[in-house]
UvrABC system protein A (Mediterraneibacter gnavus), 81 residues
Amino acid sequence: CPVCQGKRFIPEILALKYHEHSIDDVLHLSVDEGVGFFSDCPKIIKTLKMLQDVGLGYLELGQVLTTLSGGEKQRLKLATT
């Protein structure tokens, strides 16, 4: 939409920063990049490492599930069970 410019968040939310990055910036990080970005958050790192362990480190943190291939969905399920 013209307000969010396709970022799915209102400007007030996009103005909030975590380590100088907006939510949109963070959601465009890959899982691999997220491990470094969230190095001070052990719970997040644990989840991201599970995704790396099944070969999904290249996925974007904000990637829509409907865009995943069948194999990616299977590996995601393996990582979360």
